[in-house]
Automatic annotation (TrEMBL):
Keyword Zinc-finger in annotation: no
Protein name, as recorded: Lysine decarboxylase CadA
Annotated Orn/Lys/Arg decarboxylase C-terminal domain residues: 2-70
Provenance organism: Shigella sonnei
Pfam families hit by this protein: OKR_DC_1_C (PF03711)
MF annotations from Gene Ontology: lysine decarboxylase activity
EC number: 4.1.1.18
InterPro entries cross-referenced by the UniProt entry: Orn/lys/arg_de-COase, Prn/Lys/Arg_de-COase_C, Prn/Lys/Arg_de-COase_C_sf
Length: 85
């Protein structure tokens, strides 16, 4: 099972989809990858790409595997955490 979280909430979660900005079309995060603090620069890069498109129309980047929400932020699918008993 998966759920959607904002890009900046991915640390400590397991990614469910390939995430790649286009252009250039190079995967940055692979399915099954645990997102750790070491991954934060990649997340910050993705956030920067989102912000560039918001501030400079015509320079948007399509980020496959990320979904733009009504508030302008992007969410991604991660594996749903099991509830602890």
């Amino acid at each position: 099972m998966t759920e959607e979280v904002y890009l900046d909430e991915m640390v400590g979660r397991i990614n469910a989809n390939m995430i790649l900005p286009y252009p250039p079309g190079v995967p940055l995060v692979m399915p099954g990858e645990m997102i750790t603090e070491e991954s934060r620069p990649v997340l910050e890069f993705l956030q920067m790409l989102c912000e560039i498109g918001a501030h400079y129309p015509g320079f948007e980047t399509d980020i496959h595997g990320a979904y733009r929400q009504a508030d302008g932020r992007y969410t991604v699918k991660v594996l749903k955490e099991e509830s602890k008993k």
